[in-house]
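Please review the protein record below. Let me know how this chain folds according to its tokens.
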Amino acid sequence: MNDTIAMISTPIGSGGISIIRVSGEKALDFTNEIYKGKDLYKVATHTIHYGHIVDENEVIDEVLVSVMRAPKTYTREDIVEISCHGGVFVTNKILELLLLKGARLAEPGEFTKRAFLNGRIDLTQAEAVMDLIEAKTKTNLKIANLGLRGDIKKLIDDFRSRLLVCMAKIEVNIDYPEYEDEEQITTELLKPSMEKMNEELQKILNRCETSQMIKEGIKTVIIGKPNVGKSSLLNALLREEKAIVTDIAGTTRDIVEGKSNIGGIILNLIDTAGMRDAGDVVERIGIQKTKEAINKADLIILVFDNSTTFDDYDRKLLTLTADKRRIIVVNKEDLQAKIDVSEIKDYILLSSFNEKDIEKLESKIKQECQVGNINEMDASYIGNARQISKIKQAKKAIEDSLEAIKENMPIDIVSIDITSAWHYLGEITGEETNEELIKELFSKFCLGK
């Protein structure tokens, strides 16, 4: 933390500009030594200056240099950003000159790590930085910004404050029983508070599944017998000819994948081999992959053919997916109906070639996956796996405290579980953490961030 780091903060390759970021006590020293222009120590903070990067007397590039003095910077250290022409050689050359002057090559995520260690952001905000970079939809961006502006931290801090009040009152009662004016905390007085927090944490966990699907995408598997129109449906949802479509049953012999954005939600679509008694080895392998995909799916789109009769294999597919989140589609509405839909509940009749029908299906997908209005989402929509695991641990500790209360355990025993919940929640924001966790978390960041 006492050294000065440097790294290219823009993607490597040809482009309009590249940015080299320098952070640390000697950021201005090292830049001044290779910069021909105003003395950077004499310019006002948060200003941009025109000049040239030079290697001894040789001009390397014409640049703009941004100077930001601590503590009002991303890392709370002095930061210099050099904006140069976006060529691979020139960008690397400027970085090389900085390293030769004494800067160290930054590790992945080290700028954000310094922001955390210097107290500018907490761990939820640090993780939100990466979510913001990786956001592929407006919904992803909305959730990332909730974390970045500190809403998740406020949510967790509120829980920790309430737990701390309980812990403090218990400690006063245990250590200073002679304080008659202090409210005597009993397990019965604690119970309503613990039950309320347990319910609130459960509500957050109920939303976490939706949040993770929004963040990672909804793994959607399209299944059905051969020639029911699965590939046509995939192509319609993707708005492109991704899968080969023919009238020959068994055309799709392996899984075909694609991504579709429906109103800010990513569908990770998988078109599978038709489910039937396979005729050859290749088809059998395809069907086995289909069964594996079904087990891993967030959503099943089960497709039946409106122009054929409902048979025993269709019934098998209904049974196979009965305990899954699914949408049943009766395809080929434009053909003469032969199917008996009396055995099917809650289905959508459509044609893969009708845009309005596809929009109707997309609306049903959002409804089935409980993806609400983006404007209604708040900090309780947590999609980070690490944060979710800690919430689960905190909830389990609170449940243990309620169980201890139920069994009339002494108040100091109940306090152990309450304290554990407080610690678990502290790990979410980084109030309680360790060096290994920090190292692992920031190693996943991109270089220069």
Residues 178-183, 243-254 have pLDDT under 50 and may be disordered. The two ends are 16 Å apart (CA to CA).
